Amino acid sequence: MPALATLVDDFDDNTVNGALWPGNYGTYSETGGRARVQCDPDYGAYASAAAYTLAGSSAFVRIYPPAAGGATVEAYAQMSLLSSVAGTELGVQINRVPNTIRFQSNVDYFDGTAVSITYDPVAHAYVRISEAGGTVTWATSPDGTTWTSRRTLATPAWAAASTTVELRLETRRNNGTNDFAEFDNLNTLPVTPPAGSAKKAAFLAFL
């Protein structure tokens, strides 16, 4: 089975790649060079096939979370790596209601020892989950290049052995004003055009 790092999408062609994302649900699109998922009381996500392995591999993505928008409990965007058992997953969740970023290893949809810190949209622009040598590491980065470790954990047995990991880029809010979250540069970094070019100016304006 392919390593999770081989799941790559820059979302630049504004067309959802059904081969990479066969399990999408909710309201979603590829707009402005990003994956966009509506954030409402129903769950929405880009969802890959359950066909990858995390062992010795990793996944990273840039997340643009939704606004709190009047939600009272949660308005979040997250990257999750799912096992074949419902509710057993590794993930990074940005919840704009308490303004936290949470590094979690859920069993039955909960992790009592999850690490949660105040969300910084610059320092935590990119999030990554990796596995190596029997350890899972959660990390964040402002640019997708320089990473800061936020949590480590002995690799759960399922993550060490599974060849059916599914990756989801998911959103939800419990109430408030519906909007959207966006995701970009999954397992890839943007290519910066040469300095002084018209493409360079357009690239910077887009950011």
Give your account of this protein's structure.
The protein has 207 residues and is mainly β. It has one domain (4-206): Jelly Rolls, CATH 2.60.120. 7% of the residues lie in helices and 40% in strands. A hairpin with a 2-residue loop joins strand 1 and strand 2 (34-39).
Please give a handful of descriptors for the protein shown.
207 residues, mainly beta, Jelly Rolls, six-stranded antiparallel β-sheet, 2 helices
N- to C-terminal separation?
35 Å
Q: Could you name the ranges where pLDDT drops below 50 across 5 or more consecutive residues? A: none
Q: Which fold name fills CATH's third level, the topology?
A: Jelly Rolls
* Global mean pLDDT: 94
What's the helix and strand layout?
Elements: E1 28-31, E2 34-39, E3 44-47, E4 58-64, E5 75-82, E6 89-95, E7 100-106, E8 115-118, E9 126-132, E10 135-141, E11 148-154, H1 157-161, E12 166-173, E13 179-184, H2 198-206
Antiparallel strand pairs: 1-2, 2-13, 3-12, 4-9, 4-13, 5-6, 5-12, 6-7, 7-8, 9-10, 10-11
